[in-house]
Amino acid sequence: MDDSRPIFVQIAELIENDIIGGALPEETQVPSTNDFAAFHRINPATAGKGVNLLVDEGILYKKRGIGMFVAEGARSRLVAKRRDQFQNEYVRPLVTEAGKLGITETQLVEMIREEGAE
Amino acid sequence: MTIQTEPTAPAASDRLGGSRIIAVLRLNFVNRFAVLGLPWMILGFIFVVNLAIWWIIFSSVSDPADRADVSEGLQYSGASFYIFVYMAVVGVQAIAMTFPFALGYSVTRRDFWLGTALTFVVLSALYSAGMTLLAAIEVWTNGWGFGGRMFTALYFGGTEAPWFERFFLFFAAFLFFFFVGAAIAAIYQRWRVNGMVVFTAVLTLALVAVVGVITLSNSWPAVGEWFAVNGPAGVVAWSLLPTAVSALAGFLLLRRATPKT
Amino acid sequence: MSAVVEVSHLTKNFRSVTAVDDVSFTVEENMIYGLLGRNGAGKTTLMQLLTGQDFATRGDIRVFGENPVENAPVLQLVSFIKESQKYPDDFKPKHVLKSAPWFFPFWDADFAERLIDDFRLPLNRRIKKLSRGQLSSIGVIVGLASRAPLTFFDEPYLGLDAVARQIFYDRLLEDYGEHPRTVILSTHLIDEVSNLLEHVLVIDEGKIIVDQDADTLRGSATTVVGTRTAVDAFVADREVLHRDYVGGLASVTVGRLGQAERLEAADAGLELSPVSLQQLIVRKTNVSQKEFEQSA
Description:
Oligomer: heterotrimer
GO molecular function (chain C): ATP binding
Number of strands of chain C: 13
Strand order of the largest sheet of chain C: 5-6-7-3-8-9
Helix content of chain C: 25-40%
Low-confidence stretches of chain C: 292-296
Structural class of chain B: mainly alpha
Strand content of chain C: 25-35%
Low-confidence stretches of chain B: 1-13
CATH superfamily of the largest domain in chain C: P-loop containing nucleotide triphosphate hydrolases
Mean pLDDT of chain B: 88
Largest interface: B-C, 37 and 47 residues
Pfam family, one (chain C): ABC_tran
Keywords (chain C): ATP-binding, Nucleotide-binding
Structural class of chain C: alpha/beta
Radius of gyration of chain B: 23 Å
Strand content of chain B: under 5%
Order of helices and strands of chain B: HHHHHHHHH
Largest sheet of chain C: 6 strands, mixed
Distance between the termini of chain B: 39 Å
Domain ABC transporter (chain C): 5-230
Number of strands of chain B: 0
Number of domains of chain C: 2
Order of helices and strands of chain C: EEEHEHEHHHEHEHEEHEHEEHEH
Protein name (chain C): ABC transporter ATP-binding protein
Number of helices of chain C: 11
Mean pLDDT of chain C: 90
């Protein structure tokens, strides 16, 4: 809870990480808003906003009177979303910068392969 | 958010058992030792010291006539006067310390004053009953066996007064000290040091004026006569007037007072 | 959402000093508010007015829809814990905790017991002999266990160590989650409480200068660091909250920056860093301090 983005966005991201990492499998119940708030020492309303963000995206759904659950297919959708983000936030600037420096596509692929080999 | 809003406002009055006036009464009694224990202990100590003195006098005077003389003299004893001063201090502390505390408990000034006035009445009744009982024992044992006079001193109606007269004397005297103490403390709560300075000045001037008027008009014999005619019960009955004025003044002062930090 | 507190054009004068100056705001139900500001800014006076302990010079206060002054039905829904709370000299903590339930209709005795254990409050020691922290813990316990629908904490933890303060935050959040209520927390330890708050009121020189959602406020400023010329060029037509210059370097705090502006700053070789709530408030109150001095 320390970067400049709003806390509820960070909370949503933490839950997403747990879903992607498998700590929160699909169709399992996620901790309550109050649990999140107590654990991260944040206002429950803020935690609730984070949870609601994921409900709006269909990642979590509400079972009335029980609580929040991870939706079916949530993990694959999150992975797809993160891949898009990866493409936008890392690959695109990478390619742009490479173009500026006159690095060819083959050279770039070679450089990436070298990194992967290490 | 899924948090439900609780309809709090209407439910609260039902949940609070009894009124806040009674709660203030209980608050004044929460430290029982200070209001019910310590005063009796101190009174008991004074009594024991007096008992020792009476014993010494009694032992050194053997002639029955002389002993009656001594007992006659002891009727001016002020030994039990201390208990009234203590209660004036209780009155002061109720305003100086319990008032700011009670306001911290979200008590209204009105409820605080009514609850505290009730406390004064209850304490006066309790202590008057106790002292009336002690006076009866003092009469019955002929001054605890030594002709001592502590609870049947002259201004408490002497040895001849009926129990209800004694009770009334004690009761009214206690009320006077409680409420006057509380009212003076209320002046401080309302106007702080400035209020005390003005009050002391006004009181001094008033007393000087009264003494001056009586002296200049040669009325001291008349004043003495007034005391003699009214007797202890009459004089104490008149004290209810300043007591009532203090009670009202205390309320009016506290109603606009803010405990300062 | 309904308003628990509504204040309009509230002013409080002490002789020549204006402690609260024509202030208007509302407090919504079941939210945690931060009432922040420097010492002497008017925080305590404002809370004294809202709880009927002091009298307004001008303006209108509604608490649960009514004037709180001498209003028992309203006041019994209110708990006001202040750093300067006086206790009768001969009291022990047990006397305080025994009598508190008589005044707070929502008092939870079990919760109070737990808090006494948490804070290791000695019940049988004279209050005069308690340490500053132990004295503060009495207030914190009463404030939490009273569960009043409107609870004020005015600098509740003077003398409490970091561990005890953390216990206070944890218990407050837990209990607030289970029993939502309106909490107004006044403190100068802004960084410690900033994540607990949902809404922030900043008071300075008796005026409310910030009345904003905490999340919005957190992202509402950015510090731009770089060479003096580059920074000056970047911030030229922006509202500047604070400037610092060291040699050829500058560090300037400005308002919220959009995505495009962030890219522009990056292209200009400037570094951007988030501004904490505490820094932001220090900056904001500094600005009005200067303005105040200029106008005086």
